[in-house]
């Protein structure tokens, strides 16, 4: 048996747990410190403005918590990984815009991330983006076979009720 087949479940579970912790922490922090997150978005050199800040102050943390909840259940995990990929694309794009195009670099992250420079933050985001892609690629896929749902997991199929 290949190393990947032996350890893919453990790796996938570790990635799942990482994203659950990350998005739960980030979403709850943004909601609990909503006024700070709102101010950071409003004063952003890339996204600034009251309308954007008002929308982002609710949509982003609720999206992060939704993705975390999708990742908890195995039946919704693949959707959660796609959500994680979407969020990481959004966050990485924002970080790229700040690092390469913004006239100034705001200090807008909280918690542990605030210890990183914007360049280090970009590297972290790209790593998380790659982990989301790896998780999607490694996840069992659900497909229809003769009108019944089944899970195809690396060459084996299981019928679902």
Explain the overall architecture.
Strands 1-2-3 form a 3-stranded antiparallel beta sheet, with no helix packed on it. It is mainly α and 161 residues long. Residues 143-147 have low confidence and may be disordered. The longest helix is centred in the first third of the chain and has 30 residues, at 3-32. It is built from 5 helices and 3 strands. The protein has one domain. A hairpin with a 2-residue loop joins strand 1 (141-145) and strand 2. The chain has helices at residues 3-32, 34-42, 50-72, 77-101, 118-138, and strands spanning 141-145, 148-153, 156-159.
Please summarize what this structure is.
The chain contains five helices and three strands. With 161 residues, it is mainly alpha-helical.
* Biggest sheet features: 3 strands, antiparallel
How much of the sequence lies in strands comes to 5-15%
Give the distance, in angstroms, between the N- and C-terminal Cα atoms.
30 Å
**Number of E-type strands:** 3
Mean pLDDT: 84
Inertia-based shape: globular
| SSE pattern | HHHHHEEE
Q: Report low-confidence residues grouped into runs of 5 or more.
A: 143-147
Strand arrangement in the largest pleated sheet: 1-2-3
Q: Which structural category fits the helices and strands?
A: mainly alpha
How many structural domains in the coordinates? 1
Number of helices, where a helix is a run of at least 4 consecutive DSSP H or I residues: 5
Q: Bin the helical content.
A: 55-70%
Radius of gyration: 18 Å
Fill in the keyword field for this structure.
3 strands; mainly alpha
């Amino acid at each position: 048996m290949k190393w990947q087949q032996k350890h893919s479940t453990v790796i996938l579970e570790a990635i799942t747990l990482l994203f659950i912790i990350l998005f739960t922490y980030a979403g709850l922090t943004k909601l609990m410190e909503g006024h700070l997150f709102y101010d950071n978005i409003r004063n952003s050199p890339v996204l600034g403005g009251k309308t954007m800040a008002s929308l982002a102050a609710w949509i982003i943390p609720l999206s992060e918590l939704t993705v975390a909840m999708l990742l908890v259940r195995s039946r919704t995990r693949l959707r959660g990984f796609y959500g994680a990929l979407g969020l990481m694309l959004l966050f990485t794009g924002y970080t790229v815009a700040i690092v390469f195009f913004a006239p100034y670099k705001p200090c807008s992250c909280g918690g542990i991330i605030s210890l990183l420079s914007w360049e280090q933050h970009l590297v972290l985001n790209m790593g998380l983006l790659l982990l989301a892609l790896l998780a999607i690629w490694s996840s069992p896929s659900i497909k229809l076979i003769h009108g019944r749902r089944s899970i195809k997991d690396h060459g084996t199929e299981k019928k679902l009720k």
